[in-house]
Amino acid sequence: FFRTVHGWLPIVSKRYFHEYLISFPAACQPEIVLLLCCMKLLTTSADGESFEPRSSLYLATRRLSNELEDMGNFSLQALQARVLLAYYELGYAIYPAAYLATGYCAKYGIALGLHSTSFQAEPTFSLDEIEQRRRTWWAILVLERFIRLGYPDHVLLTPEPSIWDNLPTDDDVWDNQVIITSTVRLTATDVFKKPGRFAILAQGAYLLGCVIRNVSRSEVVAPGSLQDDEAQQLRRTLSALLRLSDVATGAQNYDFCAQKSLCYRYSPAFISP
Questions:
Q1: Cβ–Cβ < 8 Å for 58, 114
Q2: pLDDT, tens only, 163-200
Q3: Which of 159, 183, 212 is the last residue in one of the domains?
Q4: Torsion of CA 119, 121, 123, 125, to 10 degrees
Q5: Whether residue 106 is found in the same domain as residue 226
Q6: Whether residue 149 is found in the same domain as residue 183
Q7: 44 with 147, same domain?
Q8: What are all long-range contacts of 268-271, with beta carbons under 8 Å and residues at least 24 apart?
Q9: How big is the chain by its Cα radius of gyration, in Å?
Q10: Do 263 and 204 contact (CB within 8 A), yes or no?
Q11: How many Cβ atoms are within 10 Å of 102's Cβ, its own excluded?
């Protein structure tokens, strides 16, 4: 999982996982079992025409998830598991489960308070857990905005990020088990100096939300209107983010840039590839 999926969806802390989650008695907790099942799902090979996404493991994982909800289990690990499960369902086009799971994750995250920055001042949370909560919320934002592309009438359940929200920290720093003491704001220019993979993806999701809002305001945008001015600015910003992705791909040896798909997804209206 940490060699493959974690590269493009880094929401589970490697240090926290190895030091606590898989140790006794934590590994016996039902939410940890669910998280491990979802990790296994995402790392299951899809080779061969006989592969069935709705496998016995998938069905068992879904049942366990429902049982945890019936038990009243309410934790960050359970939400992380549901996020991983939603990405699995999206990747294999398991509908309507993928669509419904997106709304579930959004409501679950809001109930946990992940949409608010107030949890960052909570003394009971370690810096590592704060970063996990931030990354999990950004993963939900990315998921819902991507799902929104296929459902134009879908109303976003997650609020738009504030300009004061923090981006995920650099992935290499986090993976190397360095304690994070500094953060980068969503609109800060520092993100362009040494961007992390997930931070760029988060910015791509934020800009996609801006595009969706701009497009939904009016089907016909009059030249010189506020919507047209915003569209021009979004076009320039998206182009800059794509150039940043190209630079990061070469300079930091990134094998893929998932944020490009978010930027180009609205290319007919905003970008000329």
A1: no
A2: 778 888 888 888 886 655 555 666 554 445 556 788 88
A3: 159
A4: 40
A5: no
A6: no
A7: yes
A8: 269/211, 269/215, 269/231, 270/211, 270/231, 270/234, 270/235, 270/238, 271/235, 271/238, 271/239, 271/242
A9: 19
A10: yes
A11: 28
